[in-house]
Specification:
The protein is mostly helical and 72 residues long. The chain has helices at 26-56, 62-71. The chain crosses the membrane at residues 28-55.
């Protein structure tokens, strides 16, 4: 009885991703890092504004101060 090969030979196999189809990570990492840096800076500015408002606006209503705290 002849042997039956159920697996293809290595020459018949093709990789799911070739080195040409995967873009280098460096092309995207710079933009991603820059956007994260900008987001952190903006978050710091908003946090400083909310903190400053909270401690300097004692005469505002509780509802308005609660709204500012919930938006922050």
């Amino acid at each position: 009885m002849p042997a039956i090969d159920v697996l293809p030979s290595p020459e018949e196999l093709t990789p799911a991703f070739t080195s040409q189809s995967i873009p280098p990570i460096g092309e995207y990492l710079g933009g991603f890092t820059l956007s994260i840096d900008i987001a952190i800076i903006l978050y710091g500015i908003v946090t400083a504004q909310a903190y400053f408002y909270w401690w300097t606006s004692q005469e505002d209503s509780r509802l308005l101060r609660s709204l500012v705290a919930s938006v922050w």
